[in-house]
Write a structure and sequence with these properties.
Length: about 325
């Protein structure tokens, strides 16, 4: 028997592993996995009933075109169907975007720290990551990101609000940045936490995309809508980009259960907004409490708070996990 192994792509060497939050220990005190920024509420009213009914047919393939969901999204956001694409969570759509734009020799720019999947999906494609440090206030340094653009740049991620800092970029600075980006470079506004924003100066990416063909907006049902386990996200982009996303999508990737749950969630947005409002109030309480204790906490517009501990992070997390509340 030959001892040789199949040849695998060299780009896979050294790829950092995505580390999801650890679940609470079985049998221990009630604990919540804050590191995944999950929604603490159960599915919205009507969603569980819809999913339960749809489960009777999971011996069948889902609608690969996500027809019902696409129609609902088109009406909800006022965009053409041709400008929509779905995927397995916004991270799945982000990977499709890199597949559609970037390969060996190309560059992908993003802030750092930012969403930890960006370096992983960039390296998988064979492209080169260009990581631009956040400012001292843990905000995207958009001027530095614009300065980092070269003739090899294919895609730029702007995570707004930023994961894991919760900080935002506001309209004037974002529009100034977009004006500097060449038209053949795709700018992806990753708005996974859009529903939690209360700062009126933070623009809705969907409004920015409308007259900018090189802007794509990512959204997800995982956070505010509470469908993290069903893996459904979507992009809004002009037709060439959206069409490329549909080409790079995993066939039948978004299950029928996920599609039906997303539709039902969109139709329960009155309840959604009430829950999001409660989470925003809790966010304010936690930030105020931490600052009162002397912690430095950046302003957050997401459903989480960035507690910057540096080298003490692992030790703090370990002690927190062992603490019985």
């Amino acid at each position: 028997m030959s001892e040789m192994s199949p040849k695998l792509r060299a780009e896979l060497e050294g790829i950092p592993t995505y580390k999801p939050g650890k679940p609470a220990a079985a049998g221990g005190p009630v604990a919540y996995k804050l590191s995944s920024n999950e929604n603490p509420y159960p599915p919205l009213p009507g969603v569980m009933e819809t999913v339960t009914a749809a489960a009777c047919n999971f011996n069948r393939y889902p609608d690969m075109a996500c027809t019902g969901l696409m129609d609902e999204l088109s009406e909800r956001f006022g965009v053409p169907l041709a400008h929509l694409a779905t995927g397995t969570g916004s991270v799945g759509v982000a990977q499709q975007l890199i597949q559609a734009t970037s390969g060996p020799g190309d560059e992908v720019i993003y802030a750092w720290r930012s969403f930890e999947a960006y370096p992983i999906i960039t390296q998988i494609s064979g492209a080169t990551s260009v990581q631009v440090p956040l400012t001292s206030g843990d905000v995207h340094d958009l001027d530095a990101m614009a300065d980092a653009i070269t003739d090899r740049t294919r895609l730029i991620f702007v995570c707004n609000p930023n994961n894991p800092t919760g900080t935002v970029v506001r309209r004037a600075e974002l529009e100034r940045f977009l004006d500097r980006v060449p038209g053949d470079v795709l700018v992806v506004l990753d708005e996974a936490y859009r529903e939690f924003i209360r700062d009126p100066e933070v623009p809705d990416g969907v409004e920015l995309y409308r007259d900018r063909p090189n802007v794509c907006v990512l959204r997800t049902f995982s956070k505010a809508y509470g469908l993290a386990g069903l893996r459904v996200g979507f992009a809004i982009a002009h037709e060439p980009v959206a069409a490329a996303l549909r080409k790079t999508a995993v066939p039948f990737g978004v299950s029928q259960l996920a599609q039906e749950a997303a539709i039902a969630s969109l139709r329960a947005e009155d309840e959604l907004f009430g829950r999001v409002g409660s989470l925003v109030c809790e966010r304010t309480r936690v930030v105020d409490g931490l600052r009162a204790q002397g912690w430095t906490v950046p302003e957050t517009q997401a459903n989480f708070v960035w507690l910057r501990l540096g080298e003490r992070t692992v030790g703090f997390a370990g002690r927190a996990s062992r603490r019985a509340w």
